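Whether sequence alone determines local backbone shape is best considered at the level of individual chains. Part of our work consisted of pairing the sequence of a single chain with a tokenised description of its backbone. This step matters because it turns folding into a mapping between discrete strings. For completeness, the protein is quoted in full, as a sequence line and a line of structure tokens:

_____
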Amino acid sequence: MPAHQATPQGFSVKTLAETFNMPLKETAELVCLIGTVLAGLLTAFPVLRVSPAYAILGTLYFSLYQVGRKFLWFQWDIILMEATCLSVLVAPLFPSKTRLPHDNITLWLVRWLSFRLMFASGVVKLTSGCKTWWGLSAMEWHYESQCIPTPLAWFFHQTPPCIHQLEVIGTYLIEIIFPFLFFAPLAALRALGVYAQVFLMTAIMMTGNYNFFNLITCGLVITSLDDTHLPSAATLVKYLSPISNGGLGAVAAILKLPVKLLIALVKLPYKIVIGAAQCSTRAISTVGILSVVAGSGYLLRTLGGVGIDGNCAKLTFGKPELDWFLSHFVPLAIVIGLVSLVWNILLAYWSTLKVSDKTRLVKLGEIIQTTIVSCAVITMFSMSLIPLTELDRDTQNKIPLSVQELYHRTRHYHISNSYGLFRSMTGVGGRPEVVLEGSDRHDGGWQEFEFLYKPGDLSRAPPVVAPHQPRLDWQMWFAALGSYNYNPWIINLAYRLLNNGTEVNKLIKHNPFPDKPPKFIRALKYRYHYTKFGNKTRDWWTRDSVEEYFPPLALYQPTLKEFLDYHGYTKPLQEPRVSTTIIPYMGIVRTVVDKTDPVVLIWTLCLAAFLPHFKALRFRFSLFGI
């Protein structure tokens, strides 16, 4: 269903357009522009990072989500909305550098979100019943079948099956076991859990284009770290000052950062263990780390664990053992979370009362603030139990009905969500791809449309586009997993190409009919495979024809119009005829954006937002001769 036909629940871009009597398209573009500018200002200037600013950002993104439909219904979109909602609580109401006693309570919610995200993402791989995840063969297909792989994915795909099996086992440990370390009382244990997640996210980022998902996940999990584990200002100056200098040195510094980050991530767990062992006062940290290792081994042994069958590893437990695990560890996670939350609340009250140089009035004000924040955090924690306990229905049935009712009433605002990334492995046996072709004859002369990022041309290398998400290319991947009946938008896409639609042509890398649109468009389904290592070819892909995805379409066909009418794509959009001073300026911005590569544009905006921090660090240390 197109955006103007959507029936949103609550505030949306459509509501704004109707309120201000503006065209829907220009309203959506204005919302994007305001959100981009505001996000850049918050990144550049810490003084602006207050609750109302994050509330505005969340409202703007939610308004787009409401009408974006299938093109905005990704898990990272709802992660972003929930994280923005938490930012409203974490950020101060007014600009302030003073740390308040209740700050750790609100920040705890971010830690709880990172736990729910990672724990659920690991468990659903097993509860889905996917044979590749259970058979430890998922990674043999992942690098090839993911939506938009990077060039490194081709090389990782070539590794032996035993390596892929170790990758799956490591994923289970990192996503299911290590998130419990976020609530460990020892800083070394929390750091171990965080670095494991960052390592996993970095590996995913290097081999696949998952837009901002990896970055926002890293941002969530590092809230479990102490300041001692974060890089010092001197280290930041050392690595980031070349970027602020500009020129080729900046380009070289940017290219080196991922490599340096990967090396640092590989060394960090080793440094944690050695650092804890070298200091007698940290002996308890060493014992804690060894206890985690021993506990993981005991858990695997209890479940049945991992066995060896010939030259292959395999999971030796089944669904009954998994059900036992969930029936015990989902309630355990809730108890651990509740104990950790109560402890942070008590610490907040204690930090308020123990300070002697504050007046009674100030202490009373802080106690009232802590109480209000605690009530809000407890409410959000209670609501989050509903999506978390979808992993174990017996536990969910024990949650009070009042909490369940509150969650369902606010569910469409995405304050708290259920997660389950990479639930089932798709593309087993080869990645399906839909290829659009056009021709002026019904019986031949077909030429392919080449999309900007998704696999098409066999000799074109996979791109690196993160944190940009080319949503049309992503939806083409999903369309290949089903039929056009469940993806009517792809028929509308063909219809727009038959009409030589300007907006659609901007999303196509190569249109074989630049001057005059084709008379017919059809779609074929192929199965793509990576070429083998050592083959004397410049191609990255091979492909085999599978079937016709949809038959040749032409504008004169009544069935095409009937199909589009049924799905609401040909209904006229009643746009107001208004003359505002904003719309001409929006056209100028649109022209600039259209002429700029999306990946270059996003990285330019990000670096521009961070530039004041680079300059400030250099100025601060230049005063001391550093």
The two ends are 58 Å apart (CA to CA). Residues 278-283 have pLDDT under 50 and may be disordered. The chain is about 60% helix and 10% strand. The longest helix spans residues 319-354.
